[in-house]
Amino acid sequence: MQDVPLLISRILSHGSALHGTSQVITWTGESEPQRRSFAEIGARAAQLAHALRDDLGVEGDDRVATLMWNNAEHVEAYFAIPSMGAVLHTLNLRLPPEQLAWIVNHAADRVVIANGSLLPLLAPLLPHLTSVEHVVVSGPGDRSLLAGVTPRVHEYEELVAGKPTTYDWPELDERSAAAMCYTSGTTGDPKGVVYSHRSIYLHSMQVNMAQSMGLTDQDTSLVVVPQFHVNAWGLPHATFMTGVNMLMPDRFLQPGPLAAMIEKEQPTHAAAVPTIWQGLLAELGERPRDVGSLTQVTIGGSACPPSLMEAFDKLGMRVCHAWGMTETSPLGTVARPPAHVVGTEQEFEYRLTQGRFPAGVEARLTGPGGERLPWDGESAGELEVRGPWIAGAYYGGEGAQPLRPADKFSEDGWLKTGDVGTITPDGFLTLTDRAKDVIKSGGEWISSVELENALMAHPDVAEAAVVAVPDDKWGERPLATVVLKDGATADFAVLRSFLADEGRIAKWQLPERWTIIESVPKTSVGKFDKKVLRRRYAEGDLDVTRI
Amino acid sequence: MQDVPLLISRILSHGSALHGTSQVITWTGESEPQRRSFAEIGARAAQLAHALRDDLGVEGDDRVATLMWNNAEHVEAYFAIPSMGAVLHTLNLRLPPEQLAWIVNHAADRVVIANGSLLPLLAPLLPHLTSVEHVVVSGPGDRSLLAGVTPRVHEYEELVAGKPTTYDWPELDERSAAAMCYTSGTTGDPKGVVYSHRSIYLHSMQVNMAQSMGLTDQDTSLVVVPQFHVNAWGLPHATFMTGVNMLMPDRFLQPGPLAAMIEKEQPTHAAAVPTIWQGLLAELGERPRDVGSLTQVTIGGSACPPSLMEAFDKLGMRVCHAWGMTETSPLGTVARPPAHVVGTEQEFEYRLTQGRFPAGVEARLTGPGGERLPWDGESAGELEVRGPWIAGAYYGGEGAQPLRPADKFSEDGWLKTGDVGTITPDGFLTLTDRAKDVIKSGGEWISSVELENALMAHPDVAEAAVVAVPDDKWGERPLATVVLKDGATADFAVLRSFLADEGRIAKWQLPERWTIIESVPKTSVGKFDKKVLRRRYAEGDLDVTRI
């Protein structure tokens, strides 16, 4: 067989030629969105590559960062930068500024391409960025914010204008770096995950498999999941492979504009985290719109509440769970129910799992004592995965050596996901907790998430977080931290009985330690920040009752 | 990213574990077909590998041949042999015996696994096979035919019985040989195409993409295309990737049994060459059956006549053209009409093309003078392709060096398909002729196939073949060889006018040389054997009229 490397430039060339009339549609907040054909994207990607090379001096595996919303220019950067041999570094604009600066410096980005609307975030960072030589600005926004900065400032459109619309993309090693993305990292410094051309190519094929997202050129995908979030789950690459139109919300991520763009552009598919959908659902309840085109919705990032899934089913939008993480490119599982349960009551149960592993992702469960656990749907262990689009290391230890911390990679090279869950005999994953949050009590594991969900089912509880605290007898025991609703009357004894009732929680798992808090601390991406609670407990900052 | 090789053993492990309840259903001609779950196939593949290694001494990249119909045991061989590191060599049971013997000797097969029903073909060959040490027989058939042969004879079921049901599959180089298949080769010796683990893995992903066959575990695929014919178009591998059930006809390839198995097992998909479907259609006309489950039919091997496509449409079976060849694994194109023509009159035109190239297959057209031709839907040239599942050489020249004949591979490594056609701007291929059959007349190309189709549209013509013959003035001119129907009255002048009428054929392309023949000579796979006609013309064996 011919030894043809799997390169992103091949995806680009294919999409822009054979699916040249497919479109990237970017919402502008005005009546008419920006429409750019794949052929134009291909031509402009070539122009951008010429500009980066000739005007900005990008060479070798230089890192070029993007601080951008989902839009056509960001897609152009997605293809131009890796295709020319450089490395696309997508910056998460939701991170705290000091973390962003740390990440840019750690990656040694030479160029930042930024949307004008994000200059208020970028400008104050620039004095702290040690490697950035050029800033390229695209789209509306106040350029005066960049007055007096050290890096040279360029207009995206001026850079690309007049450049040749084709580029002789180099034949690279398919294992060379194509893109990178830092995990937000609730503990320690952020960690860079480097995607190769090979991993992105294979991942794109997987996304396009009928058993995964299964999109074709008959589809339009509303890509709400940010391009700075694990390559928008691989959609920009996957769509160029098959001519799927992309509908890009740019900065218009509020429920109102999302409903408007669905009604106007009639996407058939959408991908986003649950909170986005919760907002959209409320919006549609208040202001009904024709969203009938949207029949398939991929939800990842965190689990979709069953009530939300049912509400979308009623609207004719079929929700499909997927699970993954920055380190898994991200497609790790997709929850398409197996043939034998379709049409039965079990179908919904299967849809609530995180999903089934595809052929490219091998999985195993490791128990509290390091033992391998069976796939029986009951044994909970830490999930470890292996595959050609799974990270084998992090970027840049000393001397740019790859980092393989022992809590992240097993001795035989599998990724330790840090997620705890069960797997059914037919390979469906259900996550029950994060490994760092699970309570190791007397050699058994107690799921903090299970306790939290059970607590939050009580009508008086607004939010609840459960963390492990040291215990002389059991090693660790759960501490329940509860946010009560206004006017709530329940006390800890009532809540404890509620947990025990109807076997919701096994008796030995019930918390003895309880405390009321004002609100649960959250990370930059809106997840419970349990390390703050653990620290507050350790510092004696919580008023704990034992019952 | 982790450096995990793309191996067939991974497809097997995935399918037999995560899709363990999916089935290979083999027709037995009796009321109950044989049903074997993917889990059982996985266990038996491991047993077969143990038997091949421990009992038969298979090691390294030894070639193990199969002379088998489509059935569960053949699927087991498909996975066991490459997974253990050996090379699966599928033998085309339709080839003339002397060619089969040549092929087995050329590949130096050490073992042949044969269906009992094929022993009448195999037994007389054995004295001519120089490398075969073992014959393994599976399924019904008269074993006495093997009495007194030199190789040791084994029963498949006895070999696998009691062997361990797991095997520690080796971590191979993904570029190592996994399987091979010889082209039937109308000119010269047959040529071996060697598939690697990588090429088969990537091809399987492509087959499963929604834009290609797009099957999931909700499907059952009736695999009529033989497993000895380019790996049954990749279906056994692709189905194990996603849990698609396989319905295998074994030796029951006649229209009656095919209709019966469709009615009983309700496949959703089927794959076969047009002649099979023509027979099935006639059968269903005579004896209607419930074939409503079958909604998607992949047709390849040669073009599907429009009338057949329409007839299947009426039955609710959506025909989808695909094009490929042994050298392309085979998936080269799939004719899913582009979004913008769906529902319009153009849709049917697009479905009649060979289809669009997927991202993994790059294509170009080379004209009569070696020039690159545009994708304008009109310029006809020889199709050349490149990609990770496209052959880069043939097997086994002197000293097992790869063979790269200049008429098959361009200097820069692309495969010359030997097919002549046009490509639309959006990448849809229409084949018009074989390069060796096209008539090179005064620097222009005349399609022999176009002339044949136009001739065969005349009611008096049963069959017609057109071949190039030398011409002093033009280099080459077409010779029309015609088989008339019984009682036909048309003469050559009438036929010539018929061709010219309504602009069917441009005037300069009309044949001057005509002859009547009894029947068109055919190759072993039923294609017109034009070299026989050319030879008969050269030897003065045809009674040619010039008009």
From TrEMBL, chains A, B:
Pfam entry (one): AMP-binding
GO molecular function, one term: ligase activity, forming carbon-sulfur bonds
AMP-binding enzyme C-terminal domain sequence ranges: 450-527
Family assignment from sequence similarity: Belongs to the ATP-dependent AMP-binding enzyme family.
Protein name from the UniProt record: Long-chain fatty acid--CoA ligase
Keyword Ligase: yes
Domain AMP-dependent synthetase/ligase: 31-395
Keywords in alphabetical order: Ligase
PANTHER family listed in its UniProt record: LONG-CHAIN-FATTY-ACID--COA LIGASE (PTHR43767), MEDIUM-CHAIN-FATTY-ACID--COA LIGASE (PTHR43767:SF11)
UniProt xrefs under CDD domains: ttLC_FACS_AlkK_like
